[in-house]
Queue: 2 jobs
Job 1
Amino acid sequence: DIVIDPNERIAVMRKGGIIRLRDYSPPNQVPTHVTLGLAWDVTDGVNIDLDASAVCLDSSRNVVDIVFFKHLTSNDGSIRHSGDEREGDEIGDDEKIAVDLARVQTSVKYIGFVVNSYSGQELD
């Protein structure tokens, strides 16, 4: 059986989609922590290397910081990447990015999550 904590909110991100935290939160409440979980599986015996990144932008949408497999922690320590998984053979999420929203520096107004295929496969 799968047990889901009723206080936990899960959103499924689609290619090109936007997820606003306020749409998944009770009125006038925003979570203090969010986690991007990226999971994939090997198909037809071909290893696929997907990579998750977090891009932090200021109010003018200029890049303030980027967290990815070569820079695992944001400069302010509020965003942490679990590390690079190259084959998608883990149980559950293969890569995670955890964000402590209360610690994000005040100049950051937007955090975008990006998924790309390091091995070059098309993403649907």
Job 2
Amino acid sequence: MDKVIAAGAEAGELIWQMPMYEPYKEQNKSDVADIKNTGGRYAGAITAAQFLAEFV
């Protein structure tokens, strides 16, 4: 993350690391699939990041 923040500063872009609040991971669980790509009504940015983190 330090490299991303440094690159943002060099480019003049503001970067902020969002928390990966583990309890929100429950929103991506599915009864019919390995994982859902939408967490629900709340914490969309965090659940989207947790979804992507499963693949990178």
